[in-house]
Amino acid sequence: MKRLNRNQLKYLAIVAMVVDHVAWAFVPTASLLGQLMHLFGRLTGPLMAFFLAEGYAHTRNVKKYVLRMGVFALISWVPFSLFETGRPFYPCFGVIYTLFLGLLAIWLWDKAKLPVWLKVVAVIALCVLSDWGDWPVFDVLWPLFFFLWRDSEKKKWTAFCLVGLLILFFMLGTPWWGSLFQLGIFLVPLLVHFCYNGESGSKAAFHKWFFYIFYPAHLLALYFIRLALLGY
After folding, report:
1. Fewest Cβ atoms nearer than 10 Å: which of 53, 67, 104, 226?
2. Does residue 1 belong to any structural domain of this protein?
3. Average pLDDT, the chain
């Protein structure tokens, strides 16, 4: 029986994100513990992409949605930069930035009165810009494909897996077992198919704003904890 609503899966994604970031900060990636923590952490990017597409389909004001994502992408810049590099204004941005680009890709494809070839060029440009963000390319293409094929389970999850295979192709490192955690993304179709009941859950404002506020806050907290414990 499918028991998890949208809010519950979002909180699961947030927990996975924290576990993933704790592992990046304190646990060797190639260790068994590091691999297991990052395996769980791979749920975050795909789930956020999935619910971004759903959010676009159900929002009553796309412009406000885009503005909100853009503002919090900017707010998250310094916390993510500190966490990633120890420098406050390094040109690297968090996952909200990449999801913001993914939202622009959906909006452009859905509403822009442009020939298809020009839309493709624009999406490619957004993918290039996402190189400065977390989950680059993937959290641009995944939301777009989730939206385009939202009425076809087969098409959207086939597209998801094909894009996911790019992760394995381009991100497998040396030694190869240090990147096995990337396989965690393929747990998401199973999680959504068998657990998501299609309901939103409570519509309280807390659920709407929690991720936007928690994301930069937890990055700053982890940065200062690491600075206190490890000195960097």
Report:
1. 67
2. no
3. 94
Q: Domain for residue 154, yes or no?
A: yes
As to burial, measured by CB atoms within 10 angstroms (0-12 exposed, 13-18 middle, 19+ buried), residue 212 is middle
For tokens 């009165």, the residue is 113
Domain region containing 44? 6-230
Number of domains in the chain: 1
Write down the pLDDT at residue 211: 96
Kindly report the length of the chain: 232
Q: Tell me the pLDDT band of 30, cut-offs 50, 70 and 90.
A: confident
- Quick check: is 80 in a domain? yes
Whether residue 87 lies inside any domain: the answer is yes
Q: Residue 43: CB partners within 8 Å, gap ≥ 6?
A: 12, 13, 16, 184, 185, 187, 188, 191
Q: What is the rounded average pLDDT of the residues 98-103?
A: 98
pLDDT at 172: 64
Report whether pLDDT(9) > 60. yes
| pLDDT of the residue at 121 | 98
